[in-house]
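Ticket #4471: structure export looks truncated?
Reporter: QA, pipeline team
Priority: medium

Steps to reproduce: submit the single chain below to the structure queue and open the exported record.
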Amino acid sequence: MVDVENVKGSTWDPGEKHQDSEWENQNLPAAKRLSLSQRLLTWGVELRGIHPVAVEDRKETRFNKIFFIWLSANTNILSFSSGTLGPVAFGLGLRDSCLVILFFNLLFAIPPAYFSTWGPKLGLRQLCSTRYTFGYYGVMVPSMLSVIGFIGFAVLNNIVGGQALASVGDVSWTVGIVVISVISLFISFCGLKVLSWFERIIWVPVVLVFIIATCVGGKHFADAPVALPATASQILTFGATIAGFTMTWAIISSDYTTYFHPGVSSWRIFWYSYVGLIVPIVALQCLGAAAAITAPVVPAWEEKYTGGDVGGLIDAMLEPVGKFGKVLMVFVSLSVIGNNAPTIYSFGMSFQTFIPPLVIVPRYVFSVVATAVIIPLSIAGQHKLYSALSNFLSIIGYWAGPWAAAVLVEHLYFRKGDFALYDLQSWNVPSKLPLGAAALTASALSFALVIPSMDQVWYEGPIARTTGDIGIETAMAVTALLYIPLRHLEKRWKGV
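Actual output as written to the record:
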């Protein structure tokens, strides 16, 4: 049972003076600042950053919200685009692409679904709860990497969303990118309440669009060329890309369940999350693979798909419905906001964990900062989608694997899966948290085998030449094995 008193004093109320909220150090007079805060609160804007949510404040009982968050976050053109990598980047046929998509997603959706169950029990954002494994200072490393990862995902979203919006009318990809970014900023700026409402509805028109595209364009799928039998290397390397796409949601999973009532069954949250992840990702990635492998035999598709224009490919699939297809493409372009908004929302949490003194800065400020960085990067990389997508999704999994393995071993082995063994009063006290040396050392040492197991455009390791890319799997296994003895040594030395 979670001790209410342990976390009660950690709740941040912007209308009160909090021990970690030194508002008087800001430039504006305190009265004006508080007035602004109260106005934002009445408008539904969430100000809370990584401060724990006290038990008495975890009142949300509409637990299916997490299902819709994951459903909408993955019902978009980016999921479709990642599926096209099977035939385009790795030379796989449709059957092999879909089998890889199915089985790798079934496996690597487990960590994010499981970590979603932590929010109601601890009231902590995901990377903040990682302090109980990596320590107060050690967690800055995965936090920094997650900040980079969030920017990368947002850039990819902006590019494919901008492409789709540009196909609607006479606008450039750049204009489309800016429009997508501004709308995403608004949703993430407002916080979890508005985000949950938005994610509850945005998936509906997007699903209808892809159903229509499949109905009017699916007749061409039967004409898809037959590919050569897949090699183990092709399967595992594409699998690493799929794993990177899905498992990295684990880094922010509990960010969206911290307000849930702590009495909810963990299995209930797990299945809401797991199904919410699996259904849209598998369906749209398989559709993307089918469309990409069929495009060369359909002249109209191939013409619009030139240069990796995924938005143009979907637009071509919708041509049979005439001008209505342009209306549908608007929904396709807006679909990435369902992914962008939670990504930018969690950007602030990661940044506050990366640089703890920034805990005094309201959460929404980081949404503005992130957008200011993401827009120019998206514009600069808009014509390099496929190389950016395949490289980014593979690389991000290499560090997410060790992170997840260390956190899981700490929780399941050292803390016996018991959330009562987390001293929530110490969430922000370095001396009462683990040193983090065991987690960082185990993660770093795992790369002795990860690097030879990598298969990237810029590098192919000796192990990967035979097996394909097994870097993520190797990272998780080695980290888990090394963490146990190293953590025992750390506990013996520091006592925490």
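Status: closed, not a bug. The export was complete when the record was re-opened. Leaving a note from the reviewer for reference: Strands lie at 455-456, 459-460.
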